[in-house]
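Hi everyone, sorry if this is the wrong subforum. Our group has a chain we'd like a structural model of before ordering constructs, and none of us has done structure prediction before. Sequence below.
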Amino acid sequence: MENLIAYLDESLIPLEKKVQEYLEVEKEIRLLEVKILTLQNKVASVDEAEQTEPQAEDVGTEETVLSQHEQQMEHLLQRYNDLKNEVIAMLPEKNKFVEVNLGYGPSMVGYFTVDHETHHELPEPVLRVVH
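Answer:
Right subforum, don't worry. Here is the predicted structure as tokens:
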């Protein structure tokens, strides 16, 4: 019979922590994307309205905040890629899932170099987290 609690192995704790950090950065990126898109739409709509009526007082601050968010996004994307590479380096095998405990039962993480449907090589490894 298969060991159903193998994902609770203490040797997997560093990998689990790294995967949780990876997922947290992914979540931050998604939230920041929404903020950036919202600000871009505001700036664009103010720019359109400005062509008919000048109201430049809010545009400058929104453009500044937008610029700050875009810089933060660059930083987060770099951190995301670094974490992805760190998780891939911690995984024992390619093209295979490893069961880990992300706090709510067994989850799986793995990196793949071959597309599972077409069986063609991928241009770069794809990290998959199933939780």
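For your construct planning: The chain has a mean pLDDT of 88. Helices lie at 13-52, 57-90.
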